């Protein structure tokens, strides 16, 4: 049975939580196992910016951020819900995201189907959703759509049709995914960094079978995207000069 992890990024169990519960009910009715967690239930310290996770492969901070990361890794799909605070995601969600910095270099959740939900009584939905989308692209997760609610339509029930793209990705294991040029560009930036800069990244990318691939294996690119990838990567490995001390 496929398992879906739902993350509540509000410090309360009100609007965001209720919307996530509605999504959870739909997923359960579709036969999925679910787990709904609140970030506020975990001890998540601020990132120190030391880059130990990038350069050495592990974080020295002793808290519970890794528990959440492991839950995401082990899930078959991810739903992230947040209220809008000052035109963006909640602070606790941003704090957690900062702790996943190594996933930009060595994603442990590449191709993970992800659904984003945000709600507000006022404005800021578009910016909030776009901010989280940017993170998902850097994680290498596959975007399975967004759901939003505001003061005008908050009481509108979550409908199964709003989860169609997300469920399709889960069932196809990402094989039906059509990446944007932004996603392809980000992948090849990461690929170039792995090739020329970080030995630990290079070892990981070779192990995953990514280093010689234009994009994540199993995803079909059209001819234009393939040409774009080939030219982009060749340019990037010239622009991003090799770190000879580490290679």
TrEMBL record:
Listed Pfam families? FMN_red
Q: Which residues cross the membrane?
A: none
Species assigned in the record: Clostridium gallinarum
Q: Which residues form the NADPH-dependent FMN reductase-like domain?
A: 3-141
Keyword Flavoprotein on entry: yes
PANTHER family, alphabetized:
NAD(P)H-DEPENDENT FMN-CONTAINING OXIDOREDUCTASE YWQN-RELATED
Which InterPro entries does the entry link to? Flavoprotein-like_sf, FMN_Rdtase-like_dom, ISF_SsuE-like
Provide the alphabetized UniProt keywords: Flavoprotein, FMN
The protein depicted here goes by the name: Flavodoxin family protein
Q: Does the keyword Flavoprotein apply?
A: yes
